[in-house]
Amino acid sequence: MTASLHRIVVLATGGTIAGSARSAASSAQYQAATVPVSDLVQAVPALADVARIEAEQVAQVDSKDMSFDLWARLAARVAHWSAAEDVAGIVITHGTDTLEETAMFLHLTQAAPVPVVLTAAMRPSTSLSADGPLNLLDAVRVAANPAARGKGVLVVLNQQIHAARDAAKLHTSAVDAFGSPIAGPLGFIQDACVRFTRTPVGLESPRLPVPETWPMVEIVASYAQPGTVMVDALTSAGAKGIVVAASGNGSIHETLAGALANAAGAGVAVVRSSRTGAGHVAIPARPVPAAGIFVSAGDLNPCKARVLLLLALAADPAQGVDAVRLQATFSAY
Q1: Is residue 290 over pLDDT 70?
Q2: C-alpha angle with apex 307: 92 to 60, nearest 5 degrees?
Q3: Which of 270, 177, 257 is nearest to 217 (CA)?
Q4: Annotation-wise, does 331 bind a ligand?
Q5: How far is 326 from 270, CA to CA, in rounded Å?
Q6: Which residues does substrate bind (predicted)?
Q7: Nearby residues of 115 by Cβ (< 8 Å), 6 or more positions away
Q8: In sequence order, what are the beta bridge partners of 274?
Q9: Burial 182-198 (b: 16+ CB within 10 A, else e)
Q10: Per-domain residue ranges for the chain?
Q11: Contacts for 144-148 with beta carbons within 8 Å, 24 or more apart?
Q12: What is the Cα–Cα distance from 297 to 268, expressed in whole angstroms?
């Protein structure tokens, strides 16, 4: 390892990449977030040929248990290290279950001058053919590459580079579980070759602040003959926003639409997303019942739309009662 190599900081949060199992033959039965980041780094000797690594254990959690407090802590560490004069990039190890939400949060809040790259694994570190070591090596390669600057927050898995805004988990267990279903990957990594084939969108608007107080924003789904109990209960509980995992092109069952219209009338921001996993939810050319007072999430899936709604309402609560303003926010990011 030489001083001429870039300094890359690895921030660890746990997840399957830091998981372990009793048997190397097991890739489904294991305990996440047990292996410290120092061991993850030591397990990949090739890192010493790519960068000078400094590792920090920010948390050690299964990402299904991700919290707003941990998001805020992670954002603070990203801001701290990205401001360091000799840090060329930041890599974040994370669990796959909520990686796309954390990536979206960082995309919306961090204007880091250096690359910020999230990576993960679908198999625990003790598994046969564990994918974590190569994903970590590739993430460091991307973070240390000058071409990654100005690309926003990135996600690197399975030799592909994704924009944080676009990346989504599309399979329960496959090594190639992540993709960008709308726009496709930004590029790829093959050994030392890091190549970008397109530029991400949504970077022109100013980043949103990390909330000190988080509004209540939840997700409900539309399906055959839904009830209104959840919407009514959320409205009564003081929810500030509801994202609808709607069918098709943002269509909502008439019964649920009525309850959501009542919620919107009570000051709850309602955002239409699609449960299909891909595609754009159209904004009606003319207001129609329900859809006219609801906001379109565009091509954001329900979980990503919730992150944006959380941050938008925390930054400016008045958007929740002004669908036109809130639609402009969603269109900007």
Answers
A1: no
A2: 35
A3: 270
A4: no
A5: 10
A6: 63, 96-97
A7: 88, 89, 90, 142, 143, 145, 148, 149, 151, 154
A8: 246
A9: beebbbbbeeeebebee
A10: 7-196, 217-332
A11: 144/5, 144/6, 144/8, 144/50, 144/51, 144/88, 144/89, 145/115, 145/194, 147/194, 147/195, 147/196, 148/89, 148/115, 148/117, 148/194, 148/196
A12: 16
247 labeled part of a ligand binding site: no
Q: Residue 180 contacts by C-beta under 8 Å, 6 or more apart in sequence?
A: 162, 163, 166, 167, 168, 186
Largest CA distance in the chain: 65
The pLDDT, as a whole number, for residue 60 is 97
According to the annotation, is 273 in a ligand binding site?
Answer: no
Give the type of residue at 276. Answer: T
How far apart are the C-alpha atoms of 244 and 271, rounded to whole Å?
6
Do domains 7-196 and 217-332 share one topology? The answer is yes
Paired tokens of 318 = 């008045």
Are the CB atoms for 237 and 265 separated by under 8 Å? Answer: no
- pLDDT for position 1: 47
Measured CA distances, 42 to 35, 48, 209 (Å): 11, 9, 35
Mean pLDDT value of segment 117-131: 94
Instruction: Quick: pLDDT tens for 22-58.
Output: 766 666 677 888 999 999 999 999 999 999 999 999 9
> CATH for 217-332?
3.40.50.40
At 249-276, the pLDDT tens digits run: 999 999 999 999 999 999 999 999 999 9
The second-level CATH assignment, the architecture, of 7-196 is 3-Layer(aba) Sandwich (3.40)
pLDDT digits (tens, 9 = 90+) for 183-231: 999 999 999 999 999 999 889 999 999 999 999 999 999 999 999 999 9
